[in-house]
Amino acid sequence: MNRLQKEFGKETGHSIRVRSVIAIPGWHILEQNGNDHLLVNERTLPMISGWKDNDDYLMDDDLNLLHEHLTQLCKVGST
Predict the structure, then answer these.
(1) CB of 25 within 8 A of CB of 41?
(2) Is the dihedral of CA 58, 62, 65, 66 positive or negative?
(3) Which residues are CB-neighbours of 10 under 8 A, at least 6 positions away?
(4) Alpha helices per DSSP H over 13-59
(5) Beta bridge partners of 23
(6) Angle formed by the axes of helices 60-77 and 2-12, to 10°?
(7) What pTM does this model have?
(8) I need a surface site. Which of 28, 64, 68, 69 has the fewest CB within 10 A?
(9) pLDDT 10s per residue in the chain (79 long)?
């Protein structure tokens, strides 16, 4: 995740926090104990706005830049 944070920060010009999302269908998740991972199930996935820090949200311009960056990485990796 640190590598992605560095790459995303370089791409956008500001720091981007990268967190993992763990989806566990069928499990009942009572509470979130840490900030490193976001736990979701099939019912809570649509409400993935569970980020506590407003800095974790991406603007459309950042999202488009990161989408293009990841697309290029995938194209290079698949050749």
Answers:
(1) yes
(2) negative
(3) none
(4) none
(5) 40
(6) 120
(7) 0.61
(8) 28
(9) 788 899 999 999 988 888 888 888 888 877 777 777 788 888 877 766 656 677 777 889 999 999 999 999 898 876 6
